[in-house]
Amino acid sequence: MWVEDLSNGKYKYCERYTDTKGKIRKVSVTLDKNSSRVKNEASRLLYNKIDAKLEKEKQKVEDEQNKIASITFWEVQDLMLSLNLRVTIV
Asked: For the chain, what is the radius of gyration of the CA atoms?
């Protein structure tokens, strides 16, 4: 975690994390003071933000996997016919 001084006298606490796709993201929270107590609070807030975002991404991936797992042969056939794909089985 690092701290950035803002022009309005507040402090911006920032942290980087890697999302589920491997991309590096940044989260931040702005607070009024720069004491050790506020740093601990900012750290807690940042890690809660990161956990919430990772959980949301994880849920999205699980929903997509469930959607793929629950698709039937007939739905795939209708999808292929609607896309006008021709498949030859040899």
From this structure: 23
For the record, the structure tokens of 20 come out as 């589920």
Residues sharing a CB contact under 8 Å with residue 67, sequence separation 6 or more, in sequence order = none
- Beta carbons of 2 and 14 less than 8 angstroms apart: yes
The answer to whether 16 touches 24, Cβ cutoff 8 Å, is yes
CB 45 within 8 A of CB 38: no
Q: What is the pTM of this model?
A: 0.69
pLDDT digits (tens, 9 = 90+) for 49-85: 999 999 999 999 888 888 777 788 888 888 888 887 6
